[in-house]
Write a structure and sequence with these properties.
Layout: E1 13-14, H1 17-26, E2 29-35, E3 41-47, E4 49-50, E5 54-60, H2 64-70, E6 74-87, E7 95-106, E8 108-110, H3 112-126, H4 139-143, E9 145-151, E10 157-161, E11 178-181, H5 203-214
Antiparallel strand pairs: 1-10, 2-3, 2-6, 4-5, 5-9, 6-7, 6-11, 7-10, 8-9
């Protein structure tokens, strides 16, 4: 079986690179998977950031399987978003409005200034402006972190897009059908219990919540 294309419902494959970028940018986490040297599967959810034509990841240098991926083992990074539930005239035809993507390849370990820049980029994507509100990274902290990059090439990704609504041909009189949208937003920030009343929510956090509320 080939992993280069969908084996069923091929009409749901999308070749729009901009749509892939949007999905990667919208989702904070994805799943990195590989096969370890003893032949066993390994997968872990990870925070990520898209930086142009590459996906940036990071983790502890103490993670054994992560070290294997960093050494060049073939890996897959997958993200998905469920955007709504599609309600049809029968339970068999019920579905979901979704987008999913996989990017395959060998990860590159970033070192030196490139590692520092990648970790800064991750911070800027996850919470823009937060780096200016906290102390900078220490050398020992960067040394304890493995920074990785997975290149997005022309032929190493698959984007699949699910239904936005049920098929009109399946319509039956008297049965409501349609789409129930599903979204994700940030809630009201909760102050750490050891902080005093004088600590205000910083600008980076306020902006994060505001952008989420307006779906920008």
């Amino acid at each position: 079986m080939s992993l280069d294309d969908l084996t069923r419902l091929r009409e749901r494959r999308a070749d729009d690179r901009a749509a892939l970028d949007r999905l990667l940018d919208e989702q904070l986490t994805g799943t990195l998977a590989t096969v370890t040297t003893d032949g066993r599967p390994w997968a872990v959810p990870m925070l990520h950031a898209r930086d142009g034509d590459r996906i940036l990841l990071h983790g502890s240098t103490g993670a054994g399987a992560l070290r294997q991926v960093a050494a060049g083992s073939e890996a897959v990074f997958a993200v998905h978003s469920v955007d709504g539930l599609v309600l049809a005239t029968s339970m068999f035809e019920h579905s979901a409005s979704y987008r999913s993507a996989t990017v395959r390849g060998s990860l590159r370990t970033l070192t030196g200034d490139e590692a520092w820049d990648a970790l800064d980029r991750l911070s800027d994507v996850l919470v823009p402006g937060r780096r200016a509100e906290v102390r900078g990274m220490l050398k020992k902290e960067v040394a304890a972190t493995v920074a990785l990059a997975l290149d997005i090439a022309e032929d190493n990704w698959i984007l699949k897009v699910g239904d936005d609504d049920t098929d009109e041909e399946l319509f039956e009189e008297g049965v409501w059908t349609g789409l129930v949208p599903l979204g994700t937003t940030y809630g009201e920030p909760v102050r750490s219990p050891w902080l005093g009343e004088g600590y205000e929510v910083p600008p980076s956090v306020r902006a994060l919540v505001q952008r989420s509320g307006t779906n920008e």
